[in-house]
Automatic annotation (TrEMBL), chain B:
Domain ABC transporter positions: 8-254
CDD domains: ABC_NikE_OppD_transporters
Topology in the lipid bilayer: Peripheral membrane protein
SMART domains referenced in this protein's UniProt entry, alphabetically: AAA (SM00382)
Any one GO MF annotation of this record: ATP binding
Keywords: ATP-binding, Cell membrane, Membrane, Nucleotide-binding, Transport
Organism: Falsiroseomonas selenitidurans
Subcellular location: Cell inner membrane
KW Cell membrane (keyword) present: yes
One Pfam family matching this protein: ABC_tran
Descriptive protein name: ABC transporter ATP-binding protein
Membership in a protein family: Belongs to the ABC transporter superfamily.
Taxonomic superkingdom: Bacteria
Amino acid sequence: MLVVTFAGARISGNPFDYLYDDGLTAEQRAELSAEFGLDRPLPAQFAAYVGALATGNFGVSIAQRRPVLDLYAEALPSTLVLAVSAFALTLAVGLPLGVLAAVRRGRFWGGVAMGVAFLGYAMPHFVLAIILVLVFGLALSWLPSVGGDTPWHYVLPTVTLAAGLVASVVRFLRGEMLEVMGQDHVRTARATGLSGPRVLWGHVARNAALPVLTIVGLQLNGLINGSLIIETVFALPGIGQTFVGAVQVRDYPVLQFGVMAYALVVVVINLGVDALYAVADPRIRRGGATRMAEA
Amino acid sequence: MTPPLLSVRGLGVTFATPFGPVRGLDGADFDVAPGEILALVGESGSGKSVASLAVMGVLGPGGDGARVQVEGSAIWDAKVDLLRAPHRPGLAMVFQEPMTALNPVLRIGRTIGEAVARHDGVRGEAVTARVTTLLAEMGLPDPARVARAYPHELSGGMRQRALIALAMACRPRLLIADEPTTALDSTVQARVLGLLAGLRRSHGLAMLLVTHDFGVVAQIADRVAVMYGGRVVETGPVAALLAHPAHPYTRALLAAVPRLDLARGEALPAEEMPGTPPDPRHPPPGCRFHPRCAVARPGLCDSGPPPAPQALGPGRAAACHLLAA
């Protein structure tokens, strides 16, 4: 991971070529290189990088001459707000819509639910973002479309980011619901005289939602990718912006930290999803009550 | 004679399949008296399970033309929907497959507790107490621990007892049991049958027992209804019917029961009844059994449906051309 980001960043170009449009004299370039340690052989640079990481020093931005950590810390709240609200919106819209799609399958509202889902699935983030900006930002002027100053600024990015996730929640939940509905234990629940809604929400939706939640968890990875594009389109001052900005000027330390942090987040999410499986499904839980023998 | 607890007349069920409609049940009639155990027997596809599920109202759409009454009041509604099960007070069901019939992500106590809350209208501690009592009544040791367990933590026999506890939580007067012991090994099977017999004695419970096992029938049932091709072909008290089967199908079915008193290889029972049960998509004309019947008379059995069941003695009847002739 470290090697790939380190090498990849250096292969793609030199930050000074991008930062100074007018060009630099040989002396200026040498001076800057020395300041950031880029004049040393690559193995030595790599050793210094890893050594600094081990002591918790993530380096200084070449473009902005500020600690990398500070840059990301400033951008984090904006991205967190976006991610959390998109996730909440996904669950708030996706779960009822998924249940609707299953219960009313083959009928009008089921078709509507699936139509919404497929639309969200088929539409790339950036297309939806631009459509939303055109309609709500420019034509209707209801919502701001650029920047992150007020809560209203987050509405369009959140909707954009949630759209794809809603689509997959609806599709997966519908499939799971239909499968669970056919299972024997649902018949048992009905035979005990439980009311329809009780069976639907307490037995069918409950059992169906568990695998769906884990799938959604895995898609948080996609949510992170999406936030890169969306923050750029809506000019939200988040982590994605910081990262994309760093790519554009080959700001090595910022780039390296960004990739590393994303990799870490992906690992943590996957771990969290696995843990969620165990919470959700008692059959996977370890160290629980042992199998009872026939007495 | 006491009026029947459950009375079923002309119960038909049609399944919509990719190959067109299939008549799974074609006008079945049977009664269960209070406190009586009626066994529905027949081959796979005879309609015995379908009949039990339809009476319980958990079959989904497709039922028709029936008059189904519990204690004289009609419970039949042809428009049953998967998630809008009609509540059938006085009825409860024990299912065949204890592995899958319990919700895998809920603790046993929670599943049974839901039924207790529904039928007793109680909450909290009272539910827990009743669940524990029910599980103990099923002969489960350490009922409090079983209540905290998930279905996968229990053995097959324990799960089946938990399922029976769940059914008893509905305070039924009629228990419908669909092959309740088929998935269990034989020692556990005997104990579960003993439990059901005990419940009948202690609660005055009537049962509709669906089975293909004449051993189970002989052990626990009072009366038998033999089904073939979606209809009841013979009914009667267990001892009389097993000793002197009247319908050729019942005779063939009984002859197919493996016996321990025959020498190896002697009189292979398969000879008794050639062929397979009728394809419900294309039922044979006339009596449904005639293509496999050893005594069928051409011109009679293949020409029209068999007559209404002929009374053959106390509580006995069979639907056969030859008996009517």
